[in-house]
Fold each of these.
Amino acid sequence: MVDQVARLEAAARERLDPAAYAYYAAGSDEEISVGEAAAAWRSWRLLPRVLRDVSHVDTSLSLAGTPLATPVLAGPSALHGMADPQGEVATARGVAGAGSLLVLSSRSSRPIEQVAEVAGPWWYQVYCLRDREVTGEQVRRAARAGARALVLTVDAPYVAPKPRVRDPLPLGAHGDEALANIPGVRAQDREQDPSIDARVIGQLAEQSGLPVLVKGVLRADDAVRCVQAGAAGVIVSNHGGRQLDRAVASAHALPAVAEAVGDRVPVLVDGGIRTGTDVLVALALGARAVLLGRPVLWALAVGGSGGVGALLESYRSQLSTAMALAGAVNLAEVTADLVAGAGRSRG
Amino acid sequence: MVDQVARLEAAARERLDPAAYAYYAAGSDEEISVGEAAAAWRSWRLLPRVLRDVSHVDTSLSLAGTPLATPVLAGPSALHGMADPQGEVATARGVAGAGSLLVLSSRSSRPIEQVAEVAGPWWYQVYCLRDREVTGEQVRRAARAGARALVLTVDAPYVAPKPRVRDPLPLGAHGDEALANIPGVRAQDREQDPSIDARVIGQLAEQSGLPVLVKGVLRADDAVRCVQAGAAGVIVSNHGGRQLDRAVASAHALPAVAEAVGDRVPVLVDGGIRTGTDVLVALALGARAVLLGRPVLWALAVGGSGGVGALLESYRSQLSTAMALAGAVNLAEVTADLVAGAGRSRG
Amino acid sequence: MVDQVARLEAAARERLDPAAYAYYAAGSDEEISVGEAAAAWRSWRLLPRVLRDVSHVDTSLSLAGTPLATPVLAGPSALHGMADPQGEVATARGVAGAGSLLVLSSRSSRPIEQVAEVAGPWWYQVYCLRDREVTGEQVRRAARAGARALVLTVDAPYVAPKPRVRDPLPLGAHGDEALANIPGVRAQDREQDPSIDARVIGQLAEQSGLPVLVKGVLRADDAVRCVQAGAAGVIVSNHGGRQLDRAVASAHALPAVAEAVGDRVPVLVDGGIRTGTDVLVALALGARAVLLGRPVLWALAVGGSGGVGALLESYRSQLSTAMALAGAVNLAEVTADLVAGAGRSRG
Amino acid sequence: MVDQVARLEAAARERLDPAAYAYYAAGSDEEISVGEAAAAWRSWRLLPRVLRDVSHVDTSLSLAGTPLATPVLAGPSALHGMADPQGEVATARGVAGAGSLLVLSSRSSRPIEQVAEVAGPWWYQVYCLRDREVTGEQVRRAARAGARALVLTVDAPYVAPKPRVRDPLPLGAHGDEALANIPGVRAQDREQDPSIDARVIGQLAEQSGLPVLVKGVLRADDAVRCVQAGAAGVIVSNHGGRQLDRAVASAHALPAVAEAVGDRVPVLVDGGIRTGTDVLVALALGARAVLLGRPVLWALAVGGSGGVGALLESYRSQLSTAMALAGAVNLAEVTADLVAGAGRSRG
């Protein structure tokens, strides 16, 4: 059966400008990583517990000090203005209504402050640019606007080629600021700095006064280095298959990273999470929460802020049902013994 | 080659009301578990023994004190009245004629007593409902009618969504009592109680005076807990792929459960068993008997009670042939050394 | 690319009576074993040796005291008269011309003596029948006619159902004697005796004065029992997928059997061997020689005795080339280190 | 997505004489090895490092004393004259322009000296022929013309049959010398000598005064023997799937060979390398450099010397990008921890 996100994507594709759809959907090079992300989650099987009292299931959590109704967050993605005239403002409304958290991309179509005005809890995604003053100003601006944390993307020292992205993007309203932020048309000072190392984590924390989570980690040793350098969290991600093609699926990278990090900081994950059952698997493999990328864009294109809210609530509801059927009544009970590799049992 | 059950299903589909077919065939969510159940049995290969005296092959057994001609039982499934005007009465006749045992669903289209009147040995399947008095009355009524054991289904604290089930069911004759029993239209007191734990096993045994087998177990630890709580048997099952989607295939869950339970109580299994050779594999992996779900419904729809009897006899006959060709003359000789994972030998 | 045997089968199918083709091609039940035999050999990869002197490659061997030019033998198959008017007489001529050995089926279309007259070295395949006097007479008759060994088939205590075999067979000339030998139409005294055990090996050797190889062994423990009971050789086989369906592929069963038997007696193998490279794999996995089943029938149907000879020579030539390219100059140098599972190396 | 080489091959096929295309594209026997070479590289996944300074990425190396801009070399392939009127002269120009190295086939369409005149650094590929004087003359001629090393091909003691190669080759200009060099039409003294062993390595080194790399090694033990016999390098190869069919993919053979050889001499690899990411994988698995076979022919057919240069530069550029995104700034940093088997992580 076609999953909910595939249906949503098909509907979104009909509404979106083809160039916008291509930009959102594209992966790098041969699109191997983008093509296998979802299947990696589905390769896990579940070993549900029975005869537990599951009359009350609770999907809430506290993440970096912020209480949330659901571990399904809206991850950072660029240029929501191509999907909805309100852009990230609409996204933020939908996310807030669902009791979730928005990670606002630094390549937002809308100014930070406009988004912040309507948002619930939000974090700010940032690249470390060649001109550190620009980056410093970005993070201070985000902090002033109310961001509760920074998410530093580290898997894009350069922008990987994406064969599907060929045509000019329909940037529309607020295109000018957006334009300044996107790859290919930006000025030199807007380019990511390929020379950064782990010390940048502390520098950004100091500049912004905010905790810094590091996004784009696939290796246990890198995760440990980030934690030692002061990261407030680690996000396992291969950038939606848009950077190094053939990078391991986040579903396969997650267990080793989570084991290495342990309880020191939360580990989050994104990439190919298509249903509430995928979320259950991710949590069982060690994630504290998950981020959605393209699904939010498809929901936004199809249903605006209401669509985004409904999407997040659908994931939460599916997660809740799956937890009940698996015998877990809160997120702490979603543990590794619930999952087994496809075709094998370890119950 | 298409297997016997696939042919039977195709024939049944032509005769059934589309809504009834969808109800019987449906799995939950994306139907991943329902889609891989049969393939899981077929992934095992056989290592037949030769030069044994196989002039007499015996498929009989004693199960929970009841002598049976075959280890292939008719498992519990709801609403046989949609497949045959006689409903479970017809099913019971066919099962009895084949020397097998019927597990009568508490969501039967026909009253318990009418079925009991024509049945051979039978067990009664039950959910523990929110209103324990209703459940207590059900099991006492079943005991009075001659049930030899209860089968407590524990993998459905809630009913999972099944996208294929959309239309009203053609409940037909006896629809009123049936209607009271089926999900979605039942009253609150007919809902499963999601708060039960293993103590319910002893409570039901006490209320009914019957042994209680627990159905829907996929984990070794849960199986041990059930045995410790007094279960008279454990049935490895993922509810035909109708509850937690992506639950491990019963063919993959069985070995660990059987090993953990050992000889304390019989372990049974259902899900995707399509031929007598599947039965041989299941027994070799530790099951004492198997239950058929949908195949019984297809046979009932196509051939009524005679169809059900022929189906069970076909499984028994295939099992007998496979045993002879594998060098096993009785069920005790169907041991783990007869099977190997696909593509590997351990002879 | 389509392999040589697939092409030959297609050509044979055009010439054969459809019922004869179905009889030859059929497997039992769902035809799982028959469908995966060839792929099992192809799942192995080769680790060729280089910088060896391969200017002379020798495929000859001595098998049970008989010198042969090639380790590729013609295995026993029934009723060659449906493929060629000369039946097994034609087959025997082709085999002899290729310097190979014929295992004559006891279900031959032609009398033993007519075949023996034109044959090179040959063995006689036999079932142990319910009437032991009939079997005794068969093996003495074969010994008198010049058979050098018996091949006792042990994987057919009963004949498995083959859904493809429905129509009467076109038995043609010599049909009367053939008819007496084939399953389904034979008298009770012609049925295999399902009660035999390993003692029959010694009994047949005594009755015939011939060494007895046992065909149809897939388990190491059975192979050891056969050797202990006096077998002069063991043939790993699942009867061309015509007996217990889902029996392990002979390519997967061979290594464990060969290891258990060691150097005590030769281990042979059949089933799905389609090219000389398959032969190389089989020898590397521990076989001393291989037997061809259906390929001989296809060659016979297409080219008569010349076709059979060309087929065997083609296998031998391919084997010789593969040995040269793999750095093995005689069969003793075809050792286990030449093969690795698909996708892995152990060089 | 279709990879760059597949697109190039399709374009080349339109321009090439069908017999020439078949000759280039063909594999031996059933073309199993040729069919799985590329997929073997793609079966590996990457574990990129983050937060490293990747502002400068360097793909240069020194190979057997020769400084090169890229580890992607043009491997030996026969008869470039069928792809371009200038043949290997055009190839050599393209290779030199890309800062790479040409391994000139002894089955060149053009005389050694004409190629040498325009080439950058080049090695000379040689077979050891039955007439050793011919071989001696070949290698001395190559040394005089400026070859920096010899590449001795050892996996072709005989030429394997290639079913696709049926028609006469369009040898065109310089066909006479070429004709003398190609299999099937050459004189006896031009045939490879199947009797050679590892001593030939030292003999060729002595005759030519050049270091000798051995090409066609798939086993660790053979690699060690070559090194002990004086080889200056080992090239892991299955001859593009044109010799022993079902020989293990070079991607699977490489790790064991590289581990056995260690740092004693460089290990190179060819076969199925289609992108810069494949190169990254090969280097991570232990190769010091890679060789391209058919891709060079397709590029030559489509774009002449410019096409060859662009192809090599494309590989180098892709490798550089992949290194940056994987956190490796020079070839020494491309280590085994960057790769993991598909579906698994070892980060």
Amino acid sequence: MTQLKDRECEACCKGAPLATQEEIDEMMPEIPDWEMIEDDGIKKLTRTYTLSNFAEALAFTIKVGELADDVGHHPTLITEWGRVQVIFFSKKIQGLHVTDFIMAARTDSLLNS
Amino acid sequence: MTQLKDRECEACCKGAPLATQEEIDEMMPEIPDWEMIEDDGIKKLTRTYTLSNFAEALAFTIKVGELADDVGHHPTLITEWGRVQVIFFSKKIQGLHVTDFIMAARTDSLLNS
């Protein structure tokens, strides 16, 4: 089966479908360190990565930011000394699209790249 | 008078003094777009910069991050499409040190550099 990180990101436009519970149940095991949170009623995916200092955190933010900008699906990146929190959701549909899960998996794969 | 951004950053170690009200009243007018907030009882300085897209926001985050790492006084940087929120405070003294105000002024000066 194709790994989550290798799946194609679909364009997420207004009216695109939210990820179904069945899709979520299938994808979450591939991103075990991510948490689904609800923020003002909007489902989001988040993971906090631990890095060894500020420079490492900033370097990771840059990698994630460049990946996201290439794909055109942009997270919130919270950079601090020794850690980066990444939050994905799809603003246009006010929730989680399959693309958010794919981006989470791709972000994980940047950690040791 | 030396501009705030050109003042020397003092090392902020445990036991260093919090900025006094007199110092705050003197420095705030030099950083008029910054807001003093209280987060869990800890005073912090924050400003949200508006940029034109994600790439510009990431580029600004990198500039601020590199400046901060050179000085050794690290903010929280929240990067999103079209904006970057910067938060400074001094963890070691759980509040605001003069260095936080100097760093805020230097961050402002990066905007059009």
Amino acid sequence: MAKGPGLPKGTRDFGPAEMIRRNFIFNTIRSVFRLYGYQPIETPAMENLSTLLGKYGEEGDRLLFKILNSGDFASGISPEIILNTGPGELSSMISEKGLRYDLTVPFARYVVQHRNDISFPFKRYQIQPVWRADKPQKGRYREFYQCDVDVIGDNSLFNEYELVKIIDDVFSRLSVRTDIRLNNRKLLNGIAEVIGEKARIGDITVAIDKLDKAGIENVNRELAQKGLSGAAISSLQPILFLEGSADDKFSKLEKILERSEDGMKGLSEMRILFEYLDNDTLASSCKFDLTLARGLDYYTGAIIEARALDMEIGSICGGGRYDDLTGIFGLEGVSGVGISFGADRIYDVMNRLDLFPGESEQGTRVLFLNFGEAEEKYSISLLNNLRKAGISSEFFPSPRKIKKQMAYANNRGIPWVIIAGADEIKAGKLTLKNMKSGDQTLINKDELIDLLKENNQTL
Amino acid sequence: MAKGPGLPKGTRDFGPAEMIRRNFIFNTIRSVFRLYGYQPIETPAMENLSTLLGKYGEEGDRLLFKILNSGDFASGISPEIILNTGPGELSSMISEKGLRYDLTVPFARYVVQHRNDISFPFKRYQIQPVWRADKPQKGRYREFYQCDVDVIGDNSLFNEYELVKIIDDVFSRLSVRTDIRLNNRKLLNGIAEVIGEKARIGDITVAIDKLDKAGIENVNRELAQKGLSGAAISSLQPILFLEGSADDKFSKLEKILERSEDGMKGLSEMRILFEYLDNDTLASSCKFDLTLARGLDYYTGAIIEARALDMEIGSICGGGRYDDLTGIFGLEGVSGVGISFGADRIYDVMNRLDLFPGESEQGTRVLFLNFGEAEEKYSISLLNNLRKAGISSEFFPSPRKIKKQMAYANNRGIPWVIIAGADEIKAGKLTLKNMKSGDQTLINKDELIDLLKENNQTL
């Protein structure tokens, strides 16, 4: 046979075993979102390029998957244009749609488009795939799921507190031990201000964001390259490495930031947030970390990030407050805050640490062996009864060799096999085989459902 | 404000209310698939164009959404090529991936690619969106969901029977009254053979497929245009309009088709299938309909279609047996049979006929009003208790006007509102307001969870 068909690089199939595990993650996240009163929405895979372009920086624009216009897409484009136009401009002549790059920009578009039908504060969640033409590598895919939860149209720090609580709740249900770190963009702005580099806040944020991976020396080198004065870099050092409890840090920052209005506002926000967390005993699992920056431009207040304690894989959940996301679509002054769970990384963590629960409740519980036409009717009527009782069950569709049928049950991990041959039928009985222990029991056919229900837990 | 952002034509957003209804359909279909022992898989939105092209006919190729190659996609394409190349060929130079058009071809690719890991018969289901660059019109979208269930690697008619049973089970759970029609491609082949037009089976299938909408005269005209002899068309008429029960038709066909091996094979298959259905009392809801053709080329045996009885909208579920689907990817001789539920049309039917169940169990059950900082802590501790008990609940995040907070509860359809002001707090009580009746009751805070659980059903 010739080389078989394949998949585009960076994309994956999910088989039944992976689906069960992935669904466990999605269902857990979804049930917590619902418990906290968030409502689901879905947006289309394709958005107009005018919605997507310019929202993710130059790099993001390049990583968008663009969809070729239908029909005679190249008509009207002369050879001169092709020769004299760069790929970016040329693509916009033959493509007007792209695949969504994240769920945040489509959400902002959604809010603006449907603002008259929405009751604010709008608490929404959205679990859908996104696509990025990134260079595929281990753990980085071109199609992956995001699980976003946002509340838009309310300024209260209660929302930030509740999102931290959702993170804590999700990961404790998934048995993933995590470290939640919190910071505030206004504090970073204030620090930039007091070290005399207010205008370079973007560069400072980007550099600090790399502290974890690159170390302080590389960060300082980058800051110098970006043009920060030696004095500014020096005065930044003690601030980044403030020690002590959150309260200790707040007291020290109160002095450091006293001349910055933005800084003092950020400090007050963090104090309110930590008071919520203290009252909830959540503060112990949260860390106030001045070096947390998170790259995205649009954050304006609290920023939040969670990492797995028992595996190094980077952030598995993160987000923050953005004061003007819908402004890009003409709706000004609507503040929101949200976080996004990275399902693919969470999957990798749970897989590596073997945190998935047993799967005995998933999939087919019972397989009826097929002994041929004469026996078939007897099995089918029992099969129908099991299904009416809500028990997932199958009849092997063809009378293949019994060895083959048993191998199927084994490969599929089906816990019970039912043997109903001529002898059993004559006696109104059946043989129930426990595939784990190998035990076979002859039972009356009326006993079947009760027996299976009793044994549901113990298997 | 300028005209706000929009969506690509033929695509849609789904808001919270639609999501709840759509999920009801998906969850019902999914739970029936599982009950019958089918396992979930998912494939990526993007496939290589080499996987997709040529599988759906010329029309299908045109309707594929193609994805522009990343980077400098036009490099190496000279102006001469652009001027001298049609859009089809040109697009294949700048695009090597496309969005999936259905779930069947990706499934065939999946089976071939993963055949060494699969236990056959492979019973899989797949619920994902597909994309087609069709002209958007009422009820026809460019992004829509398919819900496919197939079993591959087994020839037994038991599989066809079970799929009919799944259709019956799904629609009875959804309360959608349906008409299930069955036919067999081998019978149509046999008929073409006995009227002396064996080679024109494709044209005959396509023409008959339109009988419902276009009427017999137009069908006959089309057949004549395609070159069928008058004699052949005349001898076709009585066959298409055979009357009586399935058994009556079988007896008549036995004579008509006696010289066609294919026809007799098809007849035998239909008899076996109807025997299964008879034993199950499903035959009464199924009709043997010789005029059912279903357009797709790859069917080779049974064909199945379901329509809503109470609304004209075309097929809401359909499928059939295909003997060589994986052959296109180099794996020969693997027979399969499957059906696909059209979730968007089912949604339209259920919406129009008002078949969705009450939604009281969905979404937030309880809203705590926000009276300001002093009262907040009391409410948050009650809120945490409710969530621990699994009751979806919210605290209004800001102390806005009470009228505004009540309007939010109303718009969201939240059934219970909790009022805990200074008086209630002092007495360790709270006021529970039933939003439907307007009744307010002062209760002890410890009674809250039990009261809500008791009232869960009655609301």
Amino acid sequence: MSDYLTEENSADTVNARMGKSTNPRLRRVMHSMVEHLHAFIKDVEPTQDEWEVAIDFLTRTGQISSDRRQEYILLSDVLGVSMLVDAINHRRPDGATENTVFGPFHVDGAPRRSMGDSISLDGKGELCLYTGRVIDLDGQPIAGATVDVWSDNADGYYDVQQPGEQPEWNNRGVFTTGADGSYRFVGIKPVSYPIPNDGPVGQMLEKVERHPWRPAHMHFLVSADGHEQIVTHIFVAGDTYLQSDAVFGVKDSLIVKYRRMPDADTPWSAEFDFVMKPV
Amino acid sequence: MSDYLTEENSADTVNARMGKSTNPRLRRVMHSMVEHLHAFIKDVEPTQDEWEVAIDFLTRTGQISSDRRQEYILLSDVLGVSMLVDAINHRRPDGATENTVFGPFHVDGAPRRSMGDSISLDGKGELCLYTGRVIDLDGQPIAGATVDVWSDNADGYYDVQQPGEQPEWNNRGVFTTGADGSYRFVGIKPVSYPIPNDGPVGQMLEKVERHPWRPAHMHFLVSADGHEQIVTHIFVAGDTYLQSDAVFGVKDSLIVKYRRMPDADTPWSAEFDFVMKPV
């Protein structure tokens, strides 16, 4: 019997090489990764040329990444891995608001604004009044909760994607709930937009006949002492891409009907309550 | 019932998104990859922080790669994937010489040399006479076979790793067998050396308590009309790292006893026959 790597023993041979004092969690993750990776290889039996295509894809996905672009997060997103990891880490009781992907466009330190203020600073798009409450699982208001919101502008770009073109902090703001747990601000009715699709991930999507679009959404990061933070979006009901979000971020419970407001200052309104679970 | 991604349906939801006219082979590979990737995630349930460590590792592995360094091939090597893919693509009948990893140090266009010539040009190391035959499965000699050989020098570096320091084409040569299928050249008794371990892959090896060393070996690329090319090494019997080659390249059949030659021009000799299978 050979101790050397064969088709039959390959994963076990690699895993047997790990040291006995390796961090147990790392050991567990590496073992599982090697087993699944080798099972995948044995299932598809790649040719040498196919292996080279994979090496090249993985290399280019790293090389196009920079301070301003993270192509591996994008890859994780379009393969459903980001949403799966998020789901695993945020199992919540019925009634609690569900999470969705954080996305790459949040910026720490957005301006604190007063209830009712507008976050839309570029005059583009259709204004929308956002209202709702932050409550706990018993329906009790959570006072002093932080509601951090951000969205693209009417052209489909976040301010950080167009520095110098959009006003700083356009479509961003941080609000704090009062005693009744309510929040209220003016933003725009967001628009759907494509994820960056000029790199290896975009090429992959094209090869498997998938589009790069995300349905329109407003981001929320809701935090309150003693409660699990909520990272989520609300999606605009009726959007073309709800059923085919490029990053699989949509959940039924997060789709909101935007209502026409013919006689109000804003042509639209959207209402959503955030239900937090205790930590 | 939701059509959206959940923990339960995640791989199927991602795979259902692929277009109907996608290249069937790509479709098959992507389906399998997504299934195994999601199964791995569900098995280990990474935290958000662990997911970030993985994204960072994959990104850095691409970014350190260049024209002179391919860290993703190194990753494939140390995870046993390169050897597994090679094994799958080169299943050979009993008696045929086995393949092993090609490695990154072959250079096309090495000088054609005459039988008996030395490939060692730097005067370093212990000389060794390499002899043997190229034969078919019936033991018949294969005339006109090309035997392309390369090794590190006595300091453990290939010439391309030390441009300007080593003579060009040091420890490289291409020989052609005569009517009796035999070959004969002088090289050095090669030495073990570490794979590049100053990047993400080296860091990973250290975390799982693996060393980066490869046992000493001479590379051979043997080609002949009508026969499947052999990409292999011969390993020096007794090497410290035979049981723990960092890239899992060793096979029993490729270990050769280097013999002392007290009265010859070269202090060592090594003999190996290459047995080719028809294409």
